[in-house]
Please model this.
Amino acid sequence: MEKINVGLLGCGTVGTGVAKILIENRELIASRVGAELVLKRIADIDIKKERGIVFDDGVFIKDAREIVSDPEIDIIVEMIGGKGIAKELILEAIENDKQVVTANKALIADHGNTLIKTAEAKGVDLAFEASVGGCIPIVKTIRESLVGDRIRSMTGILNGTCNYILTKIDDDGSTFKEALEQAQAIGFAEADPTLDIEGYDTAHKLAIISSLAYGMEINLEDIYIEGISRISSIDIECAKEFGFKIKLFAISKNRGGTVEARVHPAMISFDNLVSSVNGSMNAVEITGDAVGSMVLYGHGAGMMPTAGAVVSDIVDVARNLLSHVTGRIPILSCRSDKIRNIPVLPIDEIHTYYYFRFSVLDRAGVLAKIAGILGAYSISLKYVNQKGLRSNGSITIVMFTHLAKEADVKKALSEISALDVVTDIPVLIRIEDDLEEEEEAKKEERCI
Ligand code: HSE
Model:
């Protein structure tokens, strides 16, 4: 049986999972591929660590460059992470005509355009299924299953750490800080959780799938990003009262000549399947002209789920090698000469629904003042609810709006914040409701 040699760069958590699958499922994979995938070399700074796997003697080395330039290695699997040495090694591997598999979302989101052009010019495969949504086959779904469809939108949960934290606050009333500490204690959240909780990790993933779905260059810098660190149990409780869950949402919409791409906490109706995705799970709803709506759900992180996605890429690439058809599927789905630079709609231009929470003094005319300012900016209210007195002498007023423009909302909230009766910074959470949005757009004859 033919052999295809794999070189693994980095044997941390996911790298170890990849090694485990390749070694323990060697015969199973060979029976499906028609060739043996041999894990020939592994580069890691710690070559002595006990990883619970029986490796062939001499597999481990310290110098990753030796693997990248080894003429016997066919596929390089980059599991180092970061944007420094990982990028250099991938470029060297491509230069040496190796096929490359990576799970490195930050690298693809930031430098993907360069890496992809280099790989396509060389005619090698560069695969990154595991960079988005862990085990969820979203890259393959967009690039292959939906290749004939026009994708209209992709919305969902792409960060398990944030979903775990929000679920914990919802379940037991933990504060954000307590929920984060719990996520760290059980190993979901990193010691420095900034990338996850401030939304950057989700934005990396959103940039990648938007590019795949709409045939545009990867465009991270124009994505609006807002994290979950200001979400409190008060807002989660208010949301629940009105039939919503709060999730850190990745939102990508094809608006014809522009694209909406944003990451922020959003209220999702209980009717939306994704609202019931809890704990560290991920889910994405994709809507296409032909397929309608479909939801992909699964583990978005973790050693074995992510490793499973990496191995699926290794197998795809191996099959292409066996058929001498590397470069068969354009890396960004669209042929490189058809990739366009589609602008991302600035956040101020979007229209959506809003939830506001105001802390105000309980005095005559306060509600009228707030409603007056909102009205002056054409922000129409759907529900208004006044909560009881709080310990600082303020009361809470909660409002839900009809469709409004973000720029108008910002101006209105800035004026409201300046009122002497307002005792705290107003809270704004966007509401994601595609069905209602379509209905309103029809009424206004506005194109969405
Ligand atoms: N830290 C991510 C998460 C997984 O919590 O989902 C890797 O992107």
